[in-house]
Amino acid sequence: MDEMMEMERLGVHLRDWRIILGLSQELVAERANISRSTLIKLEQGTGGKLENFLTVAKVLGVNDRIDAAVDPLNTDLGRARAYMLSRQRAPRRN
């Protein structure tokens, strides 16, 4: 799936959550401290900052789901390779 389609799909999911919760664009934008036009762009997947996306997700109460979805320790591979996360970086050479 290309990046634009993925952005559109995530935007639709945000919009759908907002509608299911019975919240207007104006109210969500106000609570997220963004403009309504920024929210519209996020919902259409045509732009916006990750910070704004995450703030809207928090307003909608789905931010924990996003966090869980990208946590590598929620996967078999991530748990199997968790030992790699405790490694220290090699010091930089000058």
Structural overview:
This protein has one domain: lambda repressor-like DNA-binding domains (434 Repressor (Amino-terminal Domain), Orthogonal Bundle), CATH 1.10.260.40. It has 6 helices and no strands. Helix 1 packs across helix 3, helix 2 crosses helix 3 and helix 2 crosses helix 4. 63% of the residues lie in helices and 0% in strands. With 94 residues, it is mostly helical.
What's the overall average pLDDT, rounded?
Answer: 92
How many whole angstroms does the radius of gyration measure?
17 Å
User: Distance between the terminal alpha carbons, to the nearest Å?
Assistant: 42 Å
Number of domains: 1
Per CATH, the class reads: Mainly Alpha
Which class best fits the helix and strand makeup?
mainly alpha
Q: State the shape.
A: elongated
Topology:
Blueprint: H1 3-20, H2 25-32, H3 36-44, H4 50-60, H5 63-70, H6 76-80
Provide a short characterization of the protein structure:
Helix content is 63%, strand content 0%. Helix 1 (3-20) crosses helix 3, helix 2 (25-32) packs across helix 3 and helix 2 (25-32) crosses helix 4. The chain has helices at 3-20, 25-32, 36-44, 50-60, 63-70, 76-80.
Keywords:
Transcriptional regulator with XRE-family HTH domain, Cro/C1-type_HTH, elongated, 434 Repressor (Amino-terminal Domain), 94 residues, Lambda_DNA-bd_dom_sf, 6 helices, mainly alpha
